């Protein structure tokens, strides 16, 4: 397992799978108050922030330090605890969740959250190493027909989770690769994607989604691993990078906060 790079050593580690290169990330470690953290995040898509108290409130502080007046929306933080946890596969954080609070529709998650902050609150006795991937580079390396599918085919991004309390009844239609009005690329990864209802190309779409999953599963074991210390905050460009973690024994806990910046639209 690779440990974190020292400050000043931001780098992308080239992990190889048969027939093509794939960029796995080992984020640089930067003090949360250092203005260089924003530069590292912009350049590489990931940075590990240090020096903040290991409490949930530090996520909001980290967001303010990173984005300043560019910060637009903070969604409610969530704490995730697991005991003898299984692997969390590569994914980008996104969810479409609007709740009714005293008669007022209130958004608690957004399909296009453009950054995610993950603080390690409790380290597992063994295992639990993190990994991250430059999803733009990865999908650009896929066979042409699969790249075309990801960029040109509408799917129901959360259809596999239909019936989950709080999800909207209206399908969330989108493509795996899209662009914002400002030209920023989004490369999505969710295990909730299914063909649209009564899609005439359902068989084709299902087959391509399966191929996409197989390609992701193929690259995941090759990625370099890095470890977080308790209190470290992994900040990710959620449009560009996917992340996950290895299985672990014992208890492990993280605090997670997703957000949107002025560049999300």
UniProtKB/TrEMBL annotation:
Spans traversing the lipid bilayer: none
Pfam family, one: TauD
UniProt keyword Iron present: yes
Keywords: Iron, Oxidoreductase
Organism superkingdom: Bacteria
Domain TauD/TfdA-like, chain residue ranges per copy: 31-256
Gene3D superfamilies: Clavaminate synthase-like (3.60.130.10)
Keyword Iron: yes
Full protein name: TauD/TfdA-like domain-containing protein
Organism: Saccharothrix yanglingensis
């Amino acid at each position: 397992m690779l440990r974190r790079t020292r400050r000043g050593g931001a780098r992308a580690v080239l992990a190889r799978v048969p027939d093509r290169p794939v960029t796995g990330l080992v984020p640089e470690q930067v003090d949360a108050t250092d203005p260089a953290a924003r530069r590292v995040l912009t350049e590489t898509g990931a940075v590990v922030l240090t020096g903040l108290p290991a409490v949930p409130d530090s996520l909001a502080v980290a967001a303010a330090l990173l984005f300043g007046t560019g910060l637009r929306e903070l969604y409610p933080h969530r704490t995730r605890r697991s005991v003898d946890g299984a692997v969390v596969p590569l994914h980008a954080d996104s969810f479409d969740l609007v709740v009714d609070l005293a008669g007022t529709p209130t958004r608690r998650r957004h399909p296009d959250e453009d950054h995610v902050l993950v603080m390690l609150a409790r380290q597992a006795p063994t295992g639990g190493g993190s990994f991250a991937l430059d999803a733009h580079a990865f999908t650009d390396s896929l066979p042409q027909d699969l790249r075309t599918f990801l960029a040109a085919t509408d799917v129901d991004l959360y259809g596999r989770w239909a019936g989950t309390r709080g999800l909207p009844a209206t399908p969330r239609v989108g493509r795996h690769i899209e662009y914002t009005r400002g030209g920023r690329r989004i490369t999505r990864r969710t295990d909730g994607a299914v063909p649209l209802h009564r899609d005439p190309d359902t068989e084709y779409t299902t087959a391509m989604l399966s191929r996409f999953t197989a390609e992701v599963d193929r690259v995941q074991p090759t990625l370099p691993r890095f470890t977080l210390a308790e209190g470290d905050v992994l900040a990710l460009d959620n449009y560009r990078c996917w992340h996950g973690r290895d299985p672990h024994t014992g208890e492990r806990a993280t605090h997670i906060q997703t957000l949107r910046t002025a560049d999300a639209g």
